[in-house]
Amino acid sequence: MVHPALGTGGRQVTARGENLGVAFSDEDLLEFLGRAGLPDAEDLLDDPAWVKWRGGQAHYYGAA
């Protein structure tokens, strides 16, 4: 899950309740997903079955 943008920029990323970190770009998000076991996640970023974007536009990482 990609959570809403933080006030300082970036978005918290969690998987199965585990905090993966704060992503500031799709590249960061892909790195976190790869570490979580999804090495070819680029094709999954827009698939709601795999990545859920909460509270804002997908692929936007600017300040809230």
UniProtKB/TrEMBL annotation:
Specify the domain of life of the species encoding this protein.
Bacteria
For this entry, the protein name equals Uncharacterized protein
